[in-house]
Automatic annotation (TrEMBL):
Residue ranges of every copy of the Formyl transferase N-terminal domain listed in the record: 1-177
Listed InterPro entries: Fmt, Formyl_trans_C, Formyl_transf_N, Formyl_transf_N_sf, Formyl_transferase-like_C_sf, Met-tRNA-FMT_C, Met-tRNA-FMT_N
Keywords in alphabetical order: Protein biosynthesis, Transferase
Annotated CDD domains: FMT_core_Met-tRNA-FMT_N, Met_tRNA_FMT_C
CC per GO annotation: cytosol
Gene Ontology molecular functions: methionyl-tRNA formyltransferase activity
Name the UniProt record assigns to this protein: methionyl-tRNA formyltransferase
Pfam families the record matches: Formyl_trans_C, Formyl_trans_N
EC annotation from Swiss-Prot or TrEMBL: 2.1.2.9
Lineage of the species this protein comes from: unclassified sequences, metagenomes, ecological metagenomes
Species this chain originates from: bioreactor metagenome
Keyword Protein biosynthesis annotated: yes
Residue ranges constituting the Formyl transferase C-terminal domain according to the UniProt record: 203-300
Family under the similarity heading: Belongs to the Fmt family.
Amino acid sequence: MKIAFLGTPEFALPSLDMLYQSSHELGVFTQPDRPVGRHAVLTPPPTKAYALEHSIPVFQFEKIRLPEGVEALKAFAPDLMVTAAFGQILSAENLAIPKYGCINVHGSLLPKYRGAAPIQWVIINGETETGITTMMTDVGMDTGDILLVDRVAIGENETAGELFERLSVLGAETLKRTIAALEAGTLVRIPQDESQATKCPMLKKEHGKIDFNKTAREVHNLVRGTNPWPGAYALLDGEPLKIHATLLNERDFGSAQMGTLRGDAKSGLFVRCADGWLEITELQASGSKRMNAKDFLKGRPLEGKILV
């Protein structure tokens, strides 16, 4: 089958690799190269790098719904389009091009968590289960008919980065079964239940700011859900303190102002939240490297300090 693959970040790579290994004729449509890092080095998207390495044609557009993008898709003449974290909205004109339409690999159990950052938000919101949904793309935001669903449990301490990797691999497996069913003529389309639909916003840096008036579990979930980006943080003596990892625990240092720190290099570091104390296991002060909290405390005691 001739497939136009529309994807950009690492999440898309297992699906792209699966299609390549399955000997489909591919063209990769992706975002333009972007400046990356402190020195703003112009860097290709991961899917472009993969495509060039495997001699797959690459097409890059800022907005594929504009005339040049539409014409490129028409010229490629795919039987099917597949999207995986493409990062752009497709037009009705885009979607009308392939004979079999467009299948999207989405990192949530639709209709819940429609939008750009479902993997992060399921963790931030304390969900214990998520998964992959393949769906027929329409002009709405993740509103098309559901095709196949695979579910996974979320670990209590699992980060968004770790879940991202697991779901990217699962997404390729779900997509493989979806395309096999399409080719066999057995694929069933199930309309989404709009009464169950939820949306999640795109993550911004300010979403990582910790509010210690929330419960320990809520703070723990925020730390996990914003790891690796945008990262959870609070202010210590007016300077940002990144909190990379935390653990729920049963320690009790009594009542204290929200954000109060207790502990030492032997016992560890604990912060007061609305319903108890949360252990901080990895942190990073401004201008310093990421450190284990106990090692950090050897050089900078924080007993009695307050995070805001």
